[in-house]
């Protein structure tokens, strides 16, 4: 009986998600050009599908705009490498490579879903970004072999897996600045422990989600203005980000 209930609940969720989010998103996307309209990746060509998140905020350029200030530090940060763990279809991988990271620097994208890896490749190609090292699932042992003396900016968005992956007892993060997405449905003790694990080596900023609105310096079609709240809605629960900057880099 429990199995039947679980199947029914999942099907109901899937129907609601499709009818209330996926279909309206695809409809409104027809009234937006397939490029990012604002923000640090303004002008980036985009594909018509996303992996694990709504696509309209990415077209609008308001997706996770709480982080725009953090990403702006990459351009003059002297980073030798950008790593994205949980790269989805490549919004940040391609955006950072195209607009923020000096040419020729190393870019690594970890994405466990095959469809996501294919989309990263496609998104990179249409934006002239070649040489992205696209990999599958990332675990502690693999990440430990990759980390070295290169000054690295690492983005981590793996739906709770960050608490297991980011283990400074097994991985040397001394030369790495980390931006970690935290879903606040997770027990706060996990977040507290993660902060304690990095407190001695990194300066930590706790970033909260904020209100969303369409940028005013963009000419939007009337239908987009009419449904502005829907266009910028990321349909996510409570969450925050930890920006953990190596004290070695701050010296």
Order of helices and strands: HHHEHEHEHEHEHEHHEH
Kindly report how far apart the N and C termini lie: 60 Å
Point out poorly predicted stretches.
none
- Total domains: 1
Sheet having the most strands: 7 strands, mixed
Major sheet: arrangement of strands: 3-2-1-4-5-7-6
CATH fourth-tier homologous superfamily: Vaccinia Virus protein VP39
Number of helices: 11
Strand content: 15-25%
Based on CA atoms alone, the radius of gyration comes out at: 19 Å
Helix percentage range: 25-40%
Number of strands: 7
Structural class label: alpha/beta
* The CATH top-level class label: Alpha Beta
Can you tell me the CATH architecture?
Answer: 3-Layer(aba) Sandwich
Based on CA inertia axes, which overall geometry fits?
A: globular
What is the averaged pLDDT score? Answer: 91
Can you tell me the CATH topology? Rossmann fold
Overview of this structure, please?
There is one protein chain. This protein is an alpha/beta fold and 251 residues long. It has a single domain (64-250), classed as Vaccinia Virus protein VP39 (Rossmann fold). The protein has eleven helices and seven strands. The protein has helices at 2-29, 56-60, 68-72, 91-100, 114-126, 140-146, 162-165, 188-198, 222-226, 228-232, 247-250, and strands spanning 81-85, 106-110, 133-135, 152-156, 176-183, 202-208, 239-246. It has a seven-stranded mixed sheet, with helices on both faces. Helix 5 (114-126) links the parallel strand 2 and strand 3 (133-135). The chain starts with a helix and ends with a helix. The model has no long low-confidence stretch (mean pLDDT 91).
């Amino acid at each position: 009986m429990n199995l039947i209930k679980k199947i029914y609940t999942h099907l109901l969720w899937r129907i609601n998600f499709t009818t209330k989010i996926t279909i309206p998103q695809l409809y409104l996307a027809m009234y937006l050009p397939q490029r990012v309209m604002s923000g640090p990746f303004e002008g980036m060509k985009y594909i018509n599908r996303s992996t694990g998140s709504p696509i309209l905020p990415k077209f609008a350029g308001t997706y996770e705009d709480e982080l725009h200030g953090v990403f702006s530090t990459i351009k003059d940060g002297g980073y030798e490498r950008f790593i994205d763990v949980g790269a989805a279809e490549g919004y940040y991988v391609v955006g950072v490579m195209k607009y923020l990271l000096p040419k020729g620097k190393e870019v690594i994208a970890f994405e466990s879903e095959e469809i996501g890896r294919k989309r990263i490749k496609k998104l990179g190609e249409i934006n002239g970004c070649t040489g992205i090292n696209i990999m599958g699932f990332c675990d502690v042992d693999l990440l430990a072999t990759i980390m070295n003396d290169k000054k690295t900016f690492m983005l981590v968005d793996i739906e709770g897996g960050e608490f297991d992956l980011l283990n400074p007892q097994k991985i040397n993060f001394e030369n790495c600045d980390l931006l970690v997405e935290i879903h606040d449905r997770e027990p706060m003790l996990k977040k507290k422990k993660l902060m304690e694990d990095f407190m001695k080596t990194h300066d930590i900023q706790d970033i909260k989600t904020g209100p969303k609105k369409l940028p005013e310096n963009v000419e939007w079609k009337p239908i987009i203005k009419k449904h502005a709240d829907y266009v910028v809605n990321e349909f996510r629960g409570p969450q925050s980000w930890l920006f953990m900057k190596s004290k070695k880099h701050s010296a």
